[in-house]
Predict the structure.
Amino acid sequence: MSPFRSRLALAVSRSFPLALLTIQCTAVPPRGAGVERTYQGLTLAEWQAIPYFGHGHLSEGTGNITFERDVERAIEALREFARESRPALEQLRGLGWDLDEDVREEADAALVHLAHSAAPNQELAWEALMGLVGTDDALVSAAAVGQLVNELDDEEVDWEPLGPRREEELARCVEGLLFEPGDEEFEIALEGIAVLSARSAEHERRFAAALARDPGSLRAPDAADELNELAWDFVEPDLSAPRCKALALEAARVAVALAPEVPNYWDTLAIAHWRLGNRTEALAASRRAVEAAGRLDSRQRERIEANLELFGQDASWTDAPPETPR
């Protein structure tokens, strides 16, 4: 599918649900050297002939296929051919620019899979994927970053194929997405920040500094709420082992700077200070949270007031130096 498909076609494609294909493959004779490869009974050219929207039937030399909004299965086929076929790989890369978000994400996920495989075209898949990650088109970049970060957010994933150079490029692109105007790009940026910061203190310092430079340049409408959620996920009181406390503190500070009238943001900032052992700052932020909590329902207000009581009575404040991390 061309990346320049019309918006009318885009609207039509979205009117169909994603559905699996019904495939009835004819018996395929054994293939010797030089015989064209097939996937589920169809050659690459036959898969490429199937539209990405609508419905119908295709019957050619090696198989029969009935299709209806077959994006998932068609890209699955391209992924398998792309293990060795450069044209299939190039088509996947092109689909990373598609106007349809579903198509972009499916194509990017296929490239991520190939990049982490032992396929002959593994390195070419990395080149294609990182080209999408590093593009100036924020929507295209965000889709690719989101799929790659989703793969890396797994304790068992091997980071070695990514390598230091590509990891640095990913971190740079994640930082850039922070300052895009869309909420989706901002949310993906924060997902990348969480994954990369958990990997190294250097990444954590980098992203904390990026947030601190100019909070006013964060243009996503939901930036304050998303930053508060990120900070809370790192330091909430129920966590026995808080993570990335310095980054959480900066995220909470920026959330408060963007929306100082929201009591929950002040409460998160207080907890971030508490986790770092900053007694004076924790108490001050908690008092601001209580002051702003008059508009909240009683249950939320009681929780914020309970935190202030905790910070004021916590005996460990007197047993440890002021900056002792909690």
Q: What stands out?
A: The longest strand covers residues 55-60. Residues 237-326 form a domain with the Serine Threonine Protein Phosphatase 5, Tetratricopeptide repeat fold (CATH 1.25.40). The chain has a mean pLDDT of 83.
